[in-house]
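YM 10:42: E3 ubiquitin-protein ligase RNF8 sequence, as discussed on the call
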Amino acid sequence: MNDVLENELQCTICSEHFIEAVTLNCAHSFCSYCINEWTKRKVECPICRQEIKSKTRSLVLDNCIDRMVEKLDCRLTLIRERKEKQNVLVKPARDNDSSVISSIYSILSMSSCESEDSEEDSYYSESHYII
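YM 10:58: structure's back
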C-alpha cells in the first residue's frame, strides 16, 4: 500500500515527491516547477498528451506529502534514539572491567531460582521414587 501511495505522490517528470503540486485539467499532477518548464516546450500533458488548459495548485497533495515527511522524520528520530539506547545498554565488557563481573554475580545471587529449584526437588524426592 505504501508503494502505491508513494507512486501517487511522485512527479513523473522529476521522479521525486511533489513540490508545490499542480493538477492539470486532465487530472494529472506534477511539481509546479517541472510542469512550468515542460510547458515552455510543449502545451500538452506529459502523460496523456491532452492539451493543458488549466493548472491548479493542489494543497491536498502538498499537505499529504508534508504529513508523510513529518511522520518519516519522527520514525527516523525514534530509530536513532533506539539505536543510541542499544549502544548504551549493550556495551562490550573489557577484560579489566571488574564492575561488570561483580554486577552479574550480584544479580545471580539475588535470583530466586535456586530456592525454587530446591523446593521442587524436595517435592519430587518425597512423593516420587526413582526406579
